[in-house]
Design goal:
Structural class: alpha/beta
Largest sheet: 8 strands, mixed
Oligomer: single chain
CATH architecture of the domain at 235-449: 3-Layer(aba) Sandwich
Shape: globular
Radius of gyration: 38 Å
CATH class of the domain at 235-449: Alpha Beta
Strand order of the largest sheet: 7-6-5-8-11-12-13-14
Number of helices: 20
Helix content: 25-40%
Length: 682
């Protein structure tokens, strides 16, 4: 039968109203009376010849309407979009939810009533498989189909919404502009299109969705921006509140440009942000603004600063308040120290906080990275900011704590490696801080419940290391008198994955490990944290243990010339904070020795506080030493030939870094806290 002919016996009536036909179709469940061939064709996705939705094919009007493509459903509720009145809502106007998703400037190009739906089953005969997007040819405008944009047909299937749009695959198709991202847009080129008969002849065939590459959902209104700021420009922006949009983050103020602050500023600048560094030292500010780093020993920092300044992303100032007034995010990383009597010194943190508060604007995020005692962010810093600024935390600005977890000398590597812990004074502050760090760091960002949890996490982490070192020291002292090779024993023990015994040494220095346990002990009740207190005392006493071992090896230290190698608290880092060198020099002086110090990272003026003679390693005074104490094993010492020291009788290896055999070959005794005692030769 030719397409368009009326079947014999037809009464010549016009096609019935589609809505009425649909109602009658639903009342009969849509399956009875249909021929087996028609049912088989429907399952395969074929359209019977001459059939379309508004054309009458049988006398029984309940069967005239062509059912929607797709596999048959056992539940009649899935035959309509929204129940029996489902089609009525599409009779005149686009529903509100659909209009909202299409947008006011993207009306459907062909109207809702004429939209074709792809088959949920196999592809129709005569159609070619989809081309990969990378090989998809661009058509000239003259060959583009009415449904194509930029020469490509762009199908998009609305995701399934239970209870709002029927079964998956029955929802409306929409034709949207092709995205630039490969694998998310059009699939079929005009060369692959096959014209089909009927009123849609000449239009491009839609591919079977199952033949298309896996692709994520198309995002409406994505900003077509490339480069490092693209992710930032797609972020939420706006006023504060649980349902509001956060301010656009383009400028960050970093307060404190020390060994941690300056690398952080360079990291933020590398992600496309404008960074204003704040520091009280005019020399450091001038150096940074000229494109040079005043911190020399950090790998990659000099180049990072030079690049950021050259691109206009980084500048420094001594006016913290003015910098904060221009910033969307403020990161505070200034030192918090412990005084000789173990009391916490808040002066630098309090001064920085007041300077920040004076320039604080509404909507700004303030994050402290300085390690703090538990509760400091909420109980000390929050009230100080509110008093000075007149703003309210949580309502006018966000406040969070995110401890730095970096190791001097490898900061950029650690920024990529270690998860970033973030906790705010309220959930909104936590969310804002997490969003910020996810944009500027490559490592994972771990939100925790609140600022107190983040503060305690950092203290627990560093205190664990201090206690572990104390355990290693006590085990080494026990084993040294029992002919045990402590290094081999610890290595064997650590081959079990739950054992992490640290290396014993003559002391723990720096601004972290010997300091932060006191943040816990400061407000601990009597009897609390006794293990932490004992571990701190053990590590503080290891310098005395080492000097006493050297005294026994030499038969006394009075009038002996002793050279201390390395004044820094650890190797290859220019940092004297809580260095064990101070305790060693003091103990040697008390024992009556003549003390000399050499460290290639410091000038003689910088080592003046040690109250020891600063010498060059090649000088006659250094090479005439009776004993050497290795306090920091810098890389420049690794090739040291002990035979150059003509009067050398003993070497105290305070870090377990020296080859004992090389010392013995020079005719000297090897002394260490984890080694059996050796007597120096006469």
């Amino acid at each position: 039968m030719a397409r368009g002919q009326r079947r014999p016996g037809g009464d010549g009536r016009a096609a019935p109203d589609l809505f009425q036909v649909r109602i009658s179709h639903l009342s009969g469940h849509g399956r009875a009376g249909r021929g087996a061939e028609q049912q088989l064709a429907q399952r395969r996705g074929h359209r019977p010849p001459g059939a379309h939705r508004r054309r009458v094919r049988d006398h029984d009007q309940s069967l005239d309407a062509r059912p929607f493509p797709g596999r048959p459903r056992l539940d009649h509720r899935h035959h309509a979009w929204c129940g029996q009145l489902g089609d009525q809502r599409f009779a005149g106007a686009t529903p509100r939810w659909c209009a909202a998703r299409l947008g006011p400037h993207l009306p459907h190009p062909r109207g809702l009533a004429d939209v074709q739906r792809p088959s949920r089953r196999r592809s129709r005969p005569g159609r070619l498989p989809a081309r990969p997007p990378d090989h998809l040819p661009q058509l000239p405008p003259s060959q583009a189909s009415p449904r194509a944009v930029d020469g490509h047909a762009v199908p998009h299937l609305r995701d399934h919404h239970p209870g709002r749009g029927g079964a998956r695959g029955r929802s409306l198709d929409r034709w949207l502009p092709a995205p630039a991202h490969p694998g998310r847009g059009a699939i079929v080129a005009a060369a692959d299109q096959v014209a089909r008969p009927g009123r849609h002849a000449g239009l491009p065939c839609r591919p079977d969705p199952r033949l298309q590459p896996v692709r994520g959902p198309l995002r409406r209104g994505a900003v077509p921006v490339a480069g490092p700021r693209a992710a930032l420009l797609r972020a939420d922006h706006g006023a504060l509140g649980p349902h509001s949009r956060a301010p656009l983050v383009t400028t960050v103020a970093v307060v404190g440009l020390g060994k941690i602050g300056l690398p952080l500023a360079a990291q933020f600048a590398s992600k496309g942000l404008d960074v204003i560094g704040c520091d009280l030292q005019p020399e450091a500010v001038a150096s940074i603004n000229s494109g040079r780093s005043h911190i020399r020993e950090e790998a990659g920092l000099e180049e990072a600063v030079r690049t950021a300044v050259a691109h206009g992303r980084l500048k420094a100032t001594t006016d913290t308040t003015a910098a904060v007034a221009k910033a969307d995010v403020v990161v505070v990383i200034v030192p918090l120290m412990v005084e000789p009597d173990r009391k916490i010194d808040y002066r630098s943190v309090d001064a920085a906080t007041l300077a920040v508060a004076r320039g604080l604007r509404r909507g700004t995020l303030v994050v402290y990275e300085t390690t703090l005692p538990v509760g400091t962010t909420r109980q000390r810093l929050k009230p100080a900011i509110e008093r000075e600024s007149g703003l309210t935390a949580g309502a006018d600005f966000h406040l969070a704590f995110s401890p730095e977890r970096l190791y001097a000398g490898r900061i950029f590597a650690d920024l990529r490696k270690y998860p970033k812990i973030v906790g705010g004074i309220d959930p909104a502050s936590t969310d804002k801080a997490v969003d910020f760090y996810r944009k500027v760091l490559d490592a994972e960002v771990w939100p925790v419940e609140n600022a107190e949890t983040a503060e305690f996490a950092k203290l627990a982490e560093t205190t664990y290391r201090d206690v572990n070192i104390a355990l290693a020291n006590q085990l080494a002292l026990y084993a040294a008198g029992r002919h045990v090779n402590v290094g081999q024993a610890f290595k064997a023990a650590n081959s079990q994955p739950f054992s992490h015994i640290h290396r014993p040494s003559i002391g723990v220095g720096g601004h972290c490990i010997p300091v932060y346990p006191h943040f816990l002990l400061d407000d601990a009740a009597d009897g609390e944290l006794s293990l932490v207190r004992d571990g701190r005392q053990t590590n503080d006493g290891m310098a005395r243990v080492g000097i006493e071992a050297l005294d026994r090896s030499l038969g006394g230290l009075r009038s002996r010339r002793v050279l201390v190698l390395g004044a820094s608290y650890r190797e290859d880092v220019k940092e004297l904070a809580f260095s064990t060198a101070f305790a060693i020099v003091d103990l040697l002086h008390r024992a009556g020795a003549n003390v000399m110090v050499h460290d290639p990272l410091f000038t003689p003026a910088e080592l003046f506080a040690l109250e020891a003679e600063v010498v060059d390693l090649d000088s006659e005074a250094a090479l005439s030493a009776d004993a050497v104490v290795v306090q920091a094993w810098h890389s420049s010492f690794h090739e040291l030939d002990w035979r150059r020291f003509k009067s050398l009788r003993a070497v105290l290896d305070g870090r377990g870094s020296v080859d004992p055999q090389s010392v013995r070959e020079a005719g000297a005794a090897y002394v260490a806290v984890d080694a059996p005692r050796e007597e120096a030769s006469a």
